Amino acid sequence: MADSKNSIDASPNLVTQEHPGARSDTAAPAGLRLYSTEWLTFVPGANTFNHMVEHNPTQLDEVFHALADGTRRAMLLTLAEQPASIGELAAPFDISLAAASKHIKVLERAGLVRREVLGRTHVCSLNAAPLHAGMEWIRHYEQFWNQRLDALESLLKAEDAARPVPRQSRSRR
Q1: pLDDT tens for residues 88-111?
Q2: Residue 62 contacts residue 108 (beta carbons within 8 Å)
Q3: How far is CA 151 from CA 57, 138, 155, 156, in A?
Q4: Helix 70-81 crosses helix 59-67 at what angle (to 10 degrees)?
Q5: Which of 4, 50, 107, 142 is 20 to 30 A from 57 via CA?
Q6: 64 with 140, same domain?
Q7: Into how many domains does the chain fold?
């Protein structure tokens, strides 16, 4: 039988171990893997939720995430012309069908693409409605920066008007 510090769980791949040097009340819970750091933050029976790391992204976050990749933006341009299969969307790029499908899934999560299965073929079509929220967000900041740039332009013009014009001196020959 194993010593009191280590034990074998009923599952053959799971080994638990008390952390060396740890107090007895901080022992790793049964079922966590050897050398895992999960026992440092795991509280049995309590649901831990870290708002900074595990947040639910909003629709706007999903849209900007989807648009952040050039391959996905190019796929959207293709779909703006007409619906296309995964193979047709993957063709212009040096990527596998599996990689293209992952890109499509990101676009689907953002609501930008609808996928229809016709037999063995997956046909994708564009849904541009979620882009409206992104456009509105950008438009808000466009107004902000236009106001700031207009104010800067006014200040620079006022500064130029207040500066005395240097006299041109005649050169003597």
Answers
A1: 999 999 999 999 999 999 999 999
A2: no
A3: 35, 20, 6, 9
A4: 100
A5: 142
A6: yes
A7: 2
